[in-house]
């Protein structure tokens, strides 16, 4: 199959779902099935053979590289057919104020919002809000794990990177990109944020629209090779993304000395299960447990190519992001501020080193001489704090408020003097309208 033929067929992922892998082009990014069965001894002992994908699961995830988000893709077919700016404005009005606010709303718009406005039968609002409480109580360490484990380690999976690079991520700057992601994360983890008109709900559907536009338009660009990567913003990559906010976060904070109870684990996973559903991840890929999520995340790695130049470019850019932060006291103590940013740069590298080998650090363009001194220094203090707060007469709500204050402070520093907001595609972005 030629590149042109592949790109043409990939533009309509809704029609691809039932085709078996054997009868379809397999993107070059996919690792051979036999390779995915070779697990490190420690992983095999800790998680069992199920950590390696079955042949059926492997084929499903390879197929999902050609599958998009049917509801959003259908909506975009209508939106882009004619008068796209006006139709986009109708979408924004329905999103922010409700479909009833759209005069003579078209069927396509009604159909989409009938789906997202109807809560899934499995949604437990009380459990979701508990998940929000857990995430807020993690404070700045939760942000460190998301940045230094989930995001940085994710750059090793180069099959995922190319859509990000094609959107101009390298030109935009790591600070802006990190800030936009952080703002969305904060909105989703605000109490009431995932209610119908909460900022988390609204911004998740905005990100879903951006993903749909990227999927629709990026394939027509010469830099996109469908033979190599499948379609942009595909189901497999969306699965890996939503699981990073749940299973990866929980694993990371546990390794850092934080106690997570089974109920708290389920609550955090439930929060991101709903976020994944709103993002367009299909029901079959939504999981309830931390272990189930970690196994599925490991299975998605079967479709990911080895680190390449994008891994190094993105990794180096993110590593230097702390130097762009601006804290409120910068002008009062400029030298101290500069020294503190150096400390943050090295502490982030140190935490990343806890999760990566020397070879992997090299693949990301990071110094391999770094030692995990930061987690070694701070983990005992977190363990002591956790034991005290769990066993002592500590107000958990007070701990949650303190943690949230830390998270807001860090987000403010990442944005600096820029306005706090999520992605707004510019003229060079595939989602620009």
UniProtKB/TrEMBL annotation:
Sequence segments annotated as region (Disordered): 1-30
Biased composition (Polar residues): 1-24
Pfam families: MPAB_Lcp_cat
Domain ER-bound oxygenase mpaB/mpaB'/Rubber oxygenase catalytic: 153-373
InterPro entries, A to Z: Lcp-like, MPAB/Lcp_cat_dom
GO MF annotations, alphabetized: oxidoreductase activity
PANTHER family: ER-BOUND OXYGENASE MPAB_MPAB'_RUBBER OXYGENASE CATALYTIC DOMAIN-CONTAINING PROTEIN, SECRETED PROTEIN-RELATED
Name by which UniProt lists this protein: DUF2236 domain-containing protein
Lineage: Bacteria, Pseudomonadati, Pseudomonadota, Gammaproteobacteria, Oceanospirillales
């Amino acid at each position: 199959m030629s590149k042109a033929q592949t790109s043409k067929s990939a533009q309509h992922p809704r029609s691809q779902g039932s085709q078996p892998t054997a009868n379809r082009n397999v993107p070059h990014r996919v690792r051979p099935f036999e390779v995915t069965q070779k697990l490190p001894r420690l992983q095999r002992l800790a998680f069992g053979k199920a950590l390696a994908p079955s042949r059926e699961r492997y084929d499903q995830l390879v197929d999902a590289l050609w599958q998009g988000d049917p509801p959003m893709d259908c909506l975009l077919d209508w939106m882009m057919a004619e008068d796209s700016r006006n139709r986009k404005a109708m979408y924004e009005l329905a999103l922010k104020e409700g479909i009833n606010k759209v005069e003579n709303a078209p069927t396509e718009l009604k159909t989409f919002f009938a789906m997202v406005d109807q809560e899934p039968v499995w949604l437990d609002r009380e459990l979701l809000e508990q998940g929000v409480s857990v995430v807020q109580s993690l404070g700045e360490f939760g942000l460190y794990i998301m940045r230094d484990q989930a995001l940085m380690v994710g750059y090793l999976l180069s099959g995922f990177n190319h859509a990000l690079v094609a959107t101009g991520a390298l030109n935009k700057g790591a600070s802006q990109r990190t800030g936009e992601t952080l703002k969305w994360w904060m909105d989703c983890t605000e109490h009431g944020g995932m209610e119908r008109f909460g900022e988390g709900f609204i911004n998740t559907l905005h990100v879903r629209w951006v993903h749909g536009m990227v999927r629709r338009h990026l394939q027509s660009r010469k830099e996109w090779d469908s033979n190599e990567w499948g379609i942009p913003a595909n189901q497999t990559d969306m699965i890996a993304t939503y699981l990073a906010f749940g299973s990866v976060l929980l694993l990371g904070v546990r390794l850092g000395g934080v106690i997570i109870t089974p109920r708290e684990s389920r609550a955090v996973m439930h929060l991101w299960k709903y976020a994944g559903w709103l993002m367009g991840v299909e029901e079959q890929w939504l999981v309830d447990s931390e272990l189930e999520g970690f196994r599925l995340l490991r299975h998605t790695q079967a479709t990911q190519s080895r680190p390449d130049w994008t891994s190094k470019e993105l990794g180096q850019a993110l590593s230097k992001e702390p130097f762009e932060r601006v804290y409120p006291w910068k002008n009062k103590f400029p030298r101290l501020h500069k020294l503190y940013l150096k400390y943050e740069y090295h502490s982030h590298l140190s935490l990343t080193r806890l999760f990566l080998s020397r070879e992997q650090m090299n693949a990301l363009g990071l110094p391999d001489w770094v030692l995990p001194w930061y987690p070694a220094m701070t983990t005992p203090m977190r363990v002591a704090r956790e034991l005290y707060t769990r066993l002592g007469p500590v107000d958990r709500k007070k701990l949650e408020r303190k943690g949230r204050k830390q998270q807001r402070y860090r987000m403010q520093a990442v944005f600096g003097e820029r306005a706090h907001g999520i992605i707004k595609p510019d003229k060079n972005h595939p989602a620009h309208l």
